[in-house]
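Usage

Read records sequentially. Each one opens with the input sequence:
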Amino acid sequence: MIEEAWSKGEQTIDISAHFPGWPYIMNFCNLTQVKSTTGVVRPIRRTAQQAYPAVRLTQAEVAAMIHRKEARRMELALAAEKRKLAAMAKKTWVDFCFLTLICLEAEFEAVCFPQQEEQQGPGQDAGDDH
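and closes with the structure output:
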């Protein structure tokens, strides 16, 4: 924007027209910058710069960057899947332990507290009063 105004031969440019938070007016005739809110004047200078982008990348470099980005994306997706599987395994382990405890409790009750039918002798019915 500043360079464009300079190349058009404009004498001044109001920066606040483009960036409201920057209340400056640049004067290209006397190379000064004026802060609109305070009136403070400072000198400015123009330096030669390269056209943007300053860095030129080859196709191979761009391809390598894209490959690294894709590899990182896959790495993050794999890590998320591992976390998901670990959470599922933990839940499965907890469920397994719970079911094991239920089975052990059932065995314990069967051994320690046999039912009435199991306490009677062989061939006897629960209704027999011999």
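Summary fields computed downstream for this record:
- The helical segments are 2-8, 59-112, 116-119.
- Strands lie at 12-14, 24-27, 32-35, 41-43.
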